[in-house]
Design a protein that fits this description.
The chain is of the alpha/beta class. Helices cover 36% and strands 21% of the residues. The C terminus is likely disordered.
């Protein structure tokens, strides 16, 4: 059964969202898997590409900007917009604001939302869409986890 996993951040910042995405992409890579990072623009693709080199000292995540003519069987994380290469549909980290065109062919879609009203509104729409398509749904409220690990 395909799965959609939503992470809801406490922060409203897109920068914080991108840093969280990099930590998650690193975790996926360290588990022995490679994902596709779906972005909404070439600018966002370049930002994630740059950030994956610098987000954490000592971190190494092999990655590249996917160009439709680039062989997609390279062992690295690929970053870009549509279309998602066929062999990168196991795990898609969706940083765009829309539902991936080939979402029904994906095994796992990861969504990262900020606490902004707009992000949550668009996230709820995608959530309903995946749910209606029969995806297993999982939500992680990172604000709650932050409170549990950092009591005040």
């Amino acid at each position: 059964m395909p799965e959609a996993i939503f992470y809801v951040l406490a922060a409203e910042s897109e920068t914080e969202r991108q840093h969280f995405a990099c930590r998650l992409i690193e975790k996926i890579y360290r588990s022995g898997q490679f994902c596709y990072v779906l972005t909404g623009s070439s600018q966002q693709s370049q930002q994630i590409d740059d950030l994956l080199w610098t987000f954490r000292a000592g971190s190494f995540v092999p990655h590249s900007l996917y160009q439709n003519d680039t062989p997609a069987d390279i062992d690295e994380v690929l970053i870009n917009g549509e279309p998602i290469p066929k062999n990168r549909r196991d795990i898609v980290v969706n940083l765009s604001t829309h539902i991936p065109q080939q979402f029904e062919q994906c095994k796992k879609i990861v969504e990262i939302l900020t606490s902004s009203q707009e992000s949550r509104k668009m996230g709820r729409q995608r959530y309903r869409h995946y749910q209606q398509a029969g995806f297993k749904m999982t939500t992680h409220n990172m604000a709650d986890k932050h409170k549990q690990t950092n009591p005040s």
